[in-house]
Amino acid sequence: MVDFETVKSEEIKFGKNNFIEISKRKAVTPIGENEFIALSRGYYLPDGTKRWRASIALPIEKDKREKIANAIKKI
Which has the closest alpha carbon to 13: 34, 41, 32? Predict the structure, then answer.
């Protein structure tokens, strides 16, 4: 069994009721832990609750995150 813990997160709102959540997460298993960055796209329901459409995991290593950030800035 894997338990996921959110260490830190930030949200960027766009459109009428959409958001992107960027979070540092930790997957905890009986054999150990693994940290990663999650990018999740979601939307708000009329009552304000969140729903997620899709998510991807990115490596936690700083050099990899910097390469990804630079690639996004270039596009």
Answer: 41
- Phi–psi pair at 64, nearest 5 degrees: -70, -40
For each of the domains in the chain, give its residue range(s) and CATH number, in order of start.
3-74 (3.10.450)
| Span 26-56, pLDDT tens digits | 999 999 999 999 999 999 999 999 999 999 9
- Cα four-point dihedral sign 11, 12, 18, 24: negative
Give the contacts of 54 (CB within 8 A, at least 6 positions apart): 40, 41
Of residues 29, 31, 51, 30, the one with CA closest to residue 42? 51
pTM here is 0.82
DSSP-derived letter for residue 49 is: -
DSSP 31: T
Among 25, 23, 21, 24, which residue's Cα sits nearest to residue 11?
21
